[in-house]
Design brief:
By secondary structure, the chain is an alpha+beta fold. It contains two helices and nine strands.
Length: about 130
């Protein structure tokens, strides 16, 4: 696992296999010359088991602040990519069809229900989710 950063109670490490950033409690670590040793190994979401965080480097406050600002990027919950886009949900054909069966031509307006919701789409894997739901 590569060193990613730390705060008051956690050390962050990036899995070398899936690039996911994991938080490890400082109480589960021992500091070494080139990183941290994990007292209890952890298992990543991809199945990799880690017992060490390598590449610890003393940072200046400005470098740590820059890294912290970059860490707040929105990521796809499925593939962790930062290549995402957002847009309105749009007209729902299924809702319009159901509404027209129940209410006739006036029921077609049911297709606009929920059309103002913002949907986020991952450009890498195509996963879609509603903004604020994950």
């Amino acid at each position: 696992m590569k060193y990613w950063g730390e705060d008051n109670s956690f050390i962050k490490g990036e899995c070398e296999h899936c690039k996911r950033v994991l938080k490890i409690s400082i109480g589960n670590t021992s500091r070494e010359d080139n990183g941290f040793y994990l007292n209890t190994p952890i298992k990543c979401f991809c199945g990799s088991i880690h017992n060490q965080i390598k590449g610890f480097v003393q940072e200046t406050k400005s470098a740590a602040q820059t890294r912290t600002n970059n860490d707040s990027n929105i990521r796809c919950p499925q593939c962790t990519s930062t290549q995402i886009t957002a847009g309105n949900k749009g007209f729902g054909l299924g809702k319009a069809a159901a509404g027209s069966l129940l209410l006739g031509p006036l029921g077609l307006l049911g297709g606009f229900m929920g059309s103002k919701k913002i949907m986020i789409t991952c450009l890498k894997c195509g996963n879609k989710w509603e903004a604020g739901k994950r």
